[in-house]
Amino acid sequence: MPAVATNSASANAPISPAAERFELKIEALKKTNVTVVVDNDVAFDGKMKAGENQSFSATDHFQVSADNAGALHLELNGKALAPIGPSGQEGKVTLTGSFNPDYLVAPVGKGQQVGALVLMVDGKPQSTVPMLATASVARGGLLKRMVDRLRMRL
Predict the structure, then answer these.
(1) pTM (two decimals)
(2) Which residues of 62-85 are buried (b: 16+ CB within 10 A; e: fewer)?
């Protein structure tokens, strides 16, 4: 889902990599079967050996499941996540990004929250990571705001 700034001097608000692309790194601490779905496509389905790393990039969401949930160490955009479940048991986690349209109306200040990434385990939210703008976007002039409003309606 693209981040669009309405009423702005720019068509796209500069959002941190967490908002444009989610980068997921998975390290296997023990051997386990792992399935990774990236934006509704299976990106990996197989065994990971102890010490093996896999990296994935998504624009919307990830689903990660493993035969041994405690055998995986996950990092999202460089930040460690909680285990997807207890060691020795199956586990599944969903990481979903969302943008609040209210955040994306210019002016947008550098460091301003523009959305959130929600970590879901068994369909229940476990934690939320804010997504922040990496640069400021000034309010556009009257013509620019009119064009942006038309684009949003198409």
Answers:
(1) 0.64
(2) bbbbbebbbbbebebbeeebebbb
